[in-house]
Amino acid sequence: MSATAWQVLYVEDDPVNALLMQGILELRQGVALRVARSGEEARRLVTQGRVDLLLCDLHLPDVDGNVLLAQLRETGLPAEVPAVLVTAESESVAAQLARQHGFQGHWRKPLDVAATLRQLDHWMAVSPPSGT
Predict the structure, then answer these.
(1) Of all helices (H) and strands (E), which one includes residue 84?
(2) CATH class assigned to 6-126
(3) How deeply is 36 buried, as exposed, middle or buried, from its count of CB atoms within 10 A (0-12, 13-18, 19+)?
(4) Nearest residue to 43 (alpha-carbon basis) of 15, 16, 11
(5) pTM score, whole prediction
């Protein structure tokens, strides 16, 4: 990927879910995916490179995703970088958690590929790569 590729960080401890997201994002050119399997790894990756979109699982081995977002913002994830909660919780719970904890949206598992791509296209349109 080029240096101007749109950088997505997905914080997800389940390797199957990470592979699914990788497959979905590969359907869009100009998108590079990095996966963190824990909150600790996500905090490290935020300090090591640009993030244009954060996708965050709710249940991680070392921290809940709703707590992690605030930690990542403190670690250096810019406030203008959109964050999306990715969870298997019910629609109403997912929407409430996203609103309460500063996420700009939520995606429900199992992911609907077409809906995920539409929402990805939306974020790419409204939030150009921060390196450009």
Answers:
(1) strand 83-87
(2) alpha beta
(3) buried
(4) 11
(5) 0.93
